[in-house]
User: Which sequence fits this backbone?
């Protein structure tokens, strides 16, 4: 699995766990606001992803994320851009 | 803990919650050991689905008020409380309503919770603006805010029966480090320590205010306590790691309040109380005292001795030949625990679970009151499989961790130590001798006469109320109605003319058992009703309960009542007391579980072998 795919899976799994939503639903509709995305849950996702992936988010950028890919993009900006 | 084990644990929790059953002792033990806040949070969310009836779990209602966002705290607290054997109903308050909720005691919609945990942060105590060149003014502000908090807690105490739980706070670096004068910064640190000391002292104001030392616990537990982003964005001053530390401090209080703490510490010897295997290296060869690692084992022995001094009953569970163990315990110059330190001993080659069960029988205690410490995963596994209710403490790995491993879960915490607690180990040793004595009699009645039993009945006093409340919390078997009057309720009833609270002490030729029974009675003009009566299982089987009924009948009759009424409410664990009222001569009435004794006819049920003594101004009868 590529680093990009692994990261996307980690983001999807973490979102699925916190938002209590199946990963397939998140794939089908990757807009975070379409799910139970609120400020408290977003912070839980932030701490879980930081812990799991060893990254450190700037909260301003994190709060600006609207989709699953936006979050992936925060973690590996270069690679994701190359796939777009 | 690895991800796999965590996933297994969460899967087990989902399974149990889905089936509507609370998790069993083995799973609960894993919950207690969770030090990863992420898993503890997920576990707490799953456990939210538990049904309100907890089977063997002890229900408790906990309100939560906060000076900040409550965040993950309820879930983390739920995980810790279920881990200790409680079934919590958590009732978080509304954001921004901390002071008004305390001032009006508006904690929950349906009556007072048992406990209200207050989550405090520095915003409550610090002003928005302050002058770094005028630390004394800041000190004054801290004192004023502490006085405000004290007043709120007092008001709340007056309006509600809930016990309020507060905690100390770490001084934020952004506050301390913004002062550049070292002198002034040190003074602020002093003021902050004083604030924390004053928060702890709030517990001295009332027996319904308790304080835990979060600042101290955070210093001991290497967790990152703050995340500035979460604080700034979500008013979350603490990380989940810090909240889990607080949850466990609160859990230890609730555990003690509910009587879920343990009484017995069963210990292995080889590589637990000393280093090395006695059978291989001999008493002279074991590591004990001196330099590392012998000092670690001696430190553990010193800690165990300190627990014993506070009433923890010690039991020895070792696979060894008995004679060399006796010799090592008696003669080794560095040994701090001697043979007489142990109330029960099982040094043999039989499986340890069976040995623990036999020792529990000889002490007349349930195996659920045991903690077992052993270095061998095999032995712990065998005990876990056969006696899952026994709490396990691993003693393998570096012996430097032994003391921390033993103490980290606070298994033996009590709210307050009573005189009976302190003498408990000796009482249990006496019991073992009494059991030997009983072998020489033809009938049990002959034996009971020879014991010279004396029951002392006394109305509750300020000195006996803590012990009476402790009996109510801890007694499961001979507990007639299951109503657990806590210390404040017992104290209130003891001074109310419409009630009688009595404490009963038992002694015999082998020693004094101390206060082992209690009764809470409503004194009506015509009828006295026993709201509850409890008796420690230590003194069952001697007719003591009948003598208590006899004394109560006597008191009611003297006061002019015609009827003494008692109730029995089955709890699933008090079957031993099911026949009590009828054995005491009471007649079942049409009411469910209600029994009555006609005081106008006949004698009381006091057995001939018990001498009843009454203190505090009433007559003694025999």
Assistant:
């Amino acid at each position: 699995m590529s680093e990009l795919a692994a990261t996307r899976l980690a983001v999807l799994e973490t979102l699925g766990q916190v938002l209590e939503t199946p990963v397939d639903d998140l794939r089908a509709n990757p807009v975070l606001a379409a799910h139970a995305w609120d400020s408290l849950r977003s912070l839980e996702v932030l701490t879980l992803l930081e812990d799991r992936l060893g990254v450190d988010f700037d909260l301003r950028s994190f709060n600006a994320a609207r989709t699953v890919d936006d979050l992936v993009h925060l973690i590996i900006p270069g690679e994701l851009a190359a796939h777009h | 803990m690895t991800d796999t084990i965590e996933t297994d644990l969460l899967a087990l929790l989902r399974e149990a919650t889905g089936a509507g059953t609370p998790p069993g002792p083995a799973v609960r033990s894993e919950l207690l050991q969770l030090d990863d806040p992420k898993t503890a949070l997920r576990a707490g969310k799953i456990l939210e689905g538990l049904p309100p009836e907890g089977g063997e779990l002890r229900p408790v209602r906990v309100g939560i008020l906060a000076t900040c966002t409550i965040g993950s705290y309820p879930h983390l607290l739920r995980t810790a409380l279920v881990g200790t054997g409680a079934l919590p109903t958590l009732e978080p308050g509304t954001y921004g309503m901390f002071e008004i909720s305390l001032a009006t005691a508006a904690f929950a919609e349906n009556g007072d919770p048992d406990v209200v945990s207050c989550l405090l942060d520095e915003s409550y105590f610090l002003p928005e603006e302050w002058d770094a060149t005028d630390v004394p003014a800041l000190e004054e502000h801290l004192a004023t805010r502490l006085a405000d908090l004290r007043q709120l807690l007092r008001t709340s105490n007056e309006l509600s029966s809930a016990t309020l739980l507060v905690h100390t706070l770490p001084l934020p670096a952004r506050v301390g480090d913004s002062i550049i004068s070292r002198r002034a910064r040190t003074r602020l640190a002093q003021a902050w320590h004083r604030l924390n000391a004053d928060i702890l002292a709030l517990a001295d104001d009332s027996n319904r205010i308790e304080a835990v030392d979060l600042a101290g616990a955070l210093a001991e537990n290497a967790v990152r306590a703050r995340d500035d982003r979460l604080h700034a964005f979500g008013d979350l001053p603490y990380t989940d790691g810090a909240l889990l530390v607080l949850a466990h401090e609160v859990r230890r209080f609730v555990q003690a309040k509910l009587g879920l703490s343990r009484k017995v510490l069963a210990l292995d010897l080889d590589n637990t109380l000393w280093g090395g295997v006695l059978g291989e290296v001999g008493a002279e060869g074991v590591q004990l005292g001196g330099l590392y690692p012998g000092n670690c084992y001696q430190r553990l022995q010193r800690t165990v001795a300190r627990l014993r001094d506070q009433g923890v009953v010690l039991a020895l569970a070792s696979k060894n030949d008995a004679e060399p163990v006796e010799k090592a315990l008696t003669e080794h110059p560095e040994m701090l625990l001697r043979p007489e330190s142990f109330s029960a001993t099982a040094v043999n080659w039989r499986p340890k679970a069976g040995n623990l069960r036999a020792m529990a029988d000889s002490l007349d205690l349930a195996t659920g009151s045991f903690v077992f410490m052993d270095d061998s995963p095999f032995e712990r596994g065998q005990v876990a499989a056969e006696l899952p209710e026994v709490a396990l403490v691993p003693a393998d790995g570096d012996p430097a961790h032994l003391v921390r491993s033993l103490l980290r879960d606070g298994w033996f915490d009590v709210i307050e130590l009573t005189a009976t607690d302190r003498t408990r180990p000796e009482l249990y040793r006496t019991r073992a001798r009494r059991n030997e004595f009983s072998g020489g009699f033809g009938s049990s009645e002959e034996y009971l006469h020879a014991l010279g039993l004396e029951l002392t009945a006394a109305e509750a006093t300020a000195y006996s109320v803590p012990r009476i409340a402790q009996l109510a919390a801890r007694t499961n078997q001979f507990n007639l109605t299951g109503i657990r009057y806590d210390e404040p309720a017992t104290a209130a009833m003891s001074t109310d003319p419409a009630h009688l609270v009595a404490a009963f002490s038992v002694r015999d030729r082998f020693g004094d058992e101390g206060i082992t029974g209690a009764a809470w009675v409503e004194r009506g003009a015509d009828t006295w009703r026993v709201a509850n009566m409890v008796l420690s299982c230590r003194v069952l089987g001697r007719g003591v309960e009948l003598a208590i009924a006899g004394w109560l009948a006597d008191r009611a009759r003297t006061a002019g009542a015609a009827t003494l009424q008692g109730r029995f409410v089955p709890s699933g664990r008090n079957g031993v007391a099911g026949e009590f009222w009828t054995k005491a001569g009471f007649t079942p009435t049409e009411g469910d579980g209600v029994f009555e004794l006609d005081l106008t006819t006949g004698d009381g049920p006091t057995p001939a072998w018990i001498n009843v003594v009454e203190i505090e101004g009433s007559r003694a009868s025999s």
User: Anything to note?
Assistant: Chain A has a mean pLDDT of 89. The CA atoms of residues 50 and 82 of chain A lie 23 Å apart. The two ends of chain A are 18 Å apart (CA to CA).
